[in-house]
Design brief:
Largest sheet: 8 strands, antiparallel, barrel
CATH superfamily: Lipid/polyisoprenoid-binding, YceI-like
Strand order of the largest sheet: 1-2-3-5-6-7-8-9
Number of domains: 1
Distance between the termini: 23 Å
Structural class: mainly beta
CATH topology: Lipocalin
Number of strands: 10
CATH class: Mainly Beta
Number of helices: 2
């Protein structure tokens, strides 16, 4: 609980330290899927937090690993205890900027590239992530992306005994619906 409060405070502080339009999503969707010959594995979290600043084009997202829900509770236990070690590494973050120049006052759906760092399982990886940004009414209202995470890149080890059950590359997709951040 203390970490959640600290994380939320940091996110609010990030939003207050800049003087442009800030947008926040407090219930973003993060979903992943792993396909193998023996078994498909997928999970969804509806608790990803994301902040976006239109002036700096900076994007910061944070997810609590324990927030992923699986259909099978045993998979959820193995995911948290054996693979992501959520007691040691409770969060995954993205700290990035949008590469393209976008007129945030013009409505439309824009292809964007996020350039930055994913920190997962205690390992930081430089990444470029392709996504889409929807602007309506002159403000960003939605962001989506799909990308691949290689488990080896984040030192997530899969025991030999279950190697056929878990893919080495996991497909991740995210969906964030933004609201304007208002200082209180």
């Amino acid at each position: 609980m203390k970490r959640l409060i600290t994380g939320t405070f940091c996110l609010i502080l990030f939003a207050q330290t800049v003087s442009a339009q800030q947008f926040i999503c407090s219930d973003g969707k993060t979903h992943f899927f792993s396909k193998t010959p023996l078994e498909d594995i997928e999970a969804t979290s509806l608790k990803t937090v994301c902040a976006f600043n239109t002036s700096t084009k900076k994007v910061f997202a944070k997810i609590t690993i324990l927030s992923f829900a699986f259909q099978k509770k045993l998979m959820e236990e193995h995911f948290n205890e054996n693979y992501l070690e959520s007691d040691k590494y409770p969060y995954s973050t993205l700290d990035a900027v949008i590469k393209e120049d976008i007129d945030f006052t013009k409505d439309g759906v824009y292809d964007v590239t996020l350039v930055g760092v994913i920190d997962m399982h205690g390992v930081k990886q430089q990444r470029e992530i392709k996504g889409k940004l929807t602007i309506a009414g002159g403000v960003p209202v939605r962001a989506t992306a799909e990308y691949i995470v290689k488990l080896a890149d984040h030192k997530i080890k899969i025991p030999q005994a279950v190697l056929m059950n878990i893919a080495e590359e996991i497909k991740v997709d995210v969906d964030f619906k933004f609201v304007k951040y208002e200082k209180k």
